[in-house]
Amino acid sequence: MNTTLKYYGSAILWALFILIICAVPLHDADKSGMFFPGFDKLVHCGLFFVLSVLYCVGSIRKWNTHNIRIEIAMKNTVVLISYGALIEVLQMRVFTWRSGDWNDLLADTIGACMGIFAVLLTSNAIHHEKS
C-alpha cells in the first residue's frame, strides 16, 4: 500500500476530487448564465486529462523508466475509462440527484487519451533531446 501511495498518491487524491465533484448536487447551476452549452463535457475532459497525466507520471516513476511503454499506456487507458464508467454508473444509481450521461464518459475517455498522448509525446521528446 505504501508503494502505491508513493507513486500514485497524487493521482489517487485527484481521483477522489473528481468523485466528490461528480457527487455534489448542482441543482440549477447548469442553467445559470455563467456556463455555456457543453461546459460540463469540457470539465469532464479536463479533469480526466489531469488524472491521466498524474497516473502516467506515477507509472513512469513506479517502473523507473524515462518514458511510458505502450503496454502501460494501454493499461492506464483501461483503468481510466473504467473509472469514468464507474462514476457515471454511480451517478445513475447512487447519486440520484445527478444524471449519468454516456456523453460524459466519452468526454472522460477523450480527456484520458489526450493526457496519455501528451505524456507519451513529452516523455519521448525529453528522452530524444537527452540522447
From TrEMBL:
Keyword Membrane assigned: yes
Residue spans crossing the bilayer: 7-26, 41-60, 72-93, 105-126
Superkingdom of this protein's organism: Bacteria
Pfam families: VanZ (PF04892)
Domain VanZ-like residue range list: 39-120
Keyword vocabulary terms for this entry: Membrane, Transmembrane, Transmembrane helix
InterPro entries hit by this protein: VanZ-like
The keyword Nucleotidyltransferase is annotated on this UniProt entry: no
NCBIfam families: vanZ_1 (NF037970)
Name by which UniProt lists this protein: VanZ family protein
Gene source species: Mucilaginibacter phyllosphaerae
